[in-house]
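It is worth pausing here to work through a concrete case rather than discussing structure prediction in the abstract. The textbook approach is simple: state the sequence, then state the predicted structure, then interpret. We follow exactly that order.
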Amino acid sequence: MNETHASSPKAEAFSAARAVAAGIDFAELRLGASGLFWNEYRPEDGACRLWHWRDNQARCLTPQGFSVRSRVYEYGGGAFCLGDDGVVFVNETDQQLYRQSLQGETPVALTSGECRFGDLQFAAGQVLAVEEHNDRHRLVAIDAGNGKRQLLAEGADFYAAPTLSPDGQRLAWIEWDRPHQPWTSTRLMLAERLADGRWDDPRCVAGDGAQESLQQPRFDESGRLYCLTDRGGYWQPWGETQDSLQALPCAAADHAPAPWQLGGCTWLPLGGDSWLGSWTQDGFGRLGLQAKGSQQDFSGNYSRFRNLALDERFIYAIAASPISPSAVIAIERRSQQVSVLAGGVAPLPPERISHPQTLRYPSGQGEAHGFFYPAMGDTERPPLVVFIHGGPTSACYPILDPRIQYWAQRGFAVADLNYRGSSGYGREYRQALHLSWGEVDVQDACAVVAYLARQGLVDGERAFIRGGSAGGYTTLCALAFADVFRAGASLYGVSDPVALARATHKFEGDYLDWLIGDPEQDAERYRARTPLLHAGNIRVPVIFFQGELDAVVVPQQTRDMLKALRDKGIAAQAHYYPDERHGFRKAANQAHALEQEWLFYRQVMEQEN
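Step two, the predicted structure:
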């Protein structure tokens, strides 16, 4: 490595603390009569707070001591909704619903007890929500005035997206049962209101017994039901006809990511065959409005769009680009002029930002995708860091990620992979990990090193691999079963899938059966793909980062893997964070982990020299 570049003033100036501080993010954009609202995460304290935009001004609604975040299914989502005279939100600490006016009063508890709530929708004076209690899930309606609870649906293992038609006469939702995940097989359900106000028995509109994933049901103003379904190979908008669903005109592309979190909104029906939505092409996001047989493109310079809303004048979205981080934007529909309402401030000037280049490369019997970020400076054949996203049924995006820029500023190239099994490339690509986790993802991680090295873009002998959660599993498998990487980093990563299956939560309770197989019937396959049992194969240094409060990948997994490596004489180290769960949220912890990882890799390269 070019040590002069690695320790240059410019590289040092973009510290881990600066990179982490730039990681402000937004979620759950909502538009109502009182204005625009969003949930804003700031890394300095890890809290999420509601903001209100009106009359060209933004103000924070959430007082100290509160954080707006749901933990239903552990990953949460849909943590607030707009009421008649304010907001209702899930408080992170106790997971209860609170009512808050727009006048600045202290929030008032609407519920109490041991239930958790998520995917909130407000309708007719009630808050529709997914209720979770002791691994039992239901749909409920909670009176926004007195907190009285009404049961809407129960019996399925999981629920999402309760949605009421504008006239209040039709209720739709998504449900699914174990062993399925929401991105493999779900059902679109519909109930009609009876004359006495009760709901009739629900009927399945789509997905009954089919290998079809449905998400984001919506009603238009006339009460027609729509949803996204992947029955055509991609998550695309379909609309209700007399006795079935009919495809709306759209691109052959995914119009949503995998629904790991509740409350997503990447499309909105506008009546008939018209709709506003975002979709992915070659990994890059697009934003368009389909109407009157033609499509108007509002993408501009942005490459990812989430949480859409619109009124007669503006389209609103949470968006990001290769040179700007997440922001709340308003796009004037007529002129397409963009106004940034919050966020979007890059931590580096444009000329110092490494831009993503589309990766499409051969791997195994197929093809894999991702993004390549060149090292900054004049370093020839720089070292490479391969980023493996979690999930594993998730995705990375070509947007300004301060963590990636941290590495690029230090003379590393970065390959951010959407390995086979990632979302954003259609159902077939997404299903590629079925019974193949720990194989095809590892193939893709190794193949990208050879692919980039052949082109002279990186030094294939100085490649490193890092990943969090499921990405940590791929990282450890790549180190155990291939001789490609010089070191690796596992952030709260899986080292023992069988132990994970015993300890994990209900939402992912059968996920490993889909990814690897039945732990008893396919025990040999598990043994062959368990990094902990093959720690002796790892010959290179490994660094671990683990939250002590993690309920998804419990800390003992990391301790067991660390011990196994040290018993074999491998240079392994670990850092534990007492106040972190699955995924680090505190700025100081994030910065510490990022800097320690860089120092670890630098030490490895210095020792080899």
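Step three, interpretation. The chain has twelve helices and 36 strands. The first strand starts at residue 25 and ends at 32.
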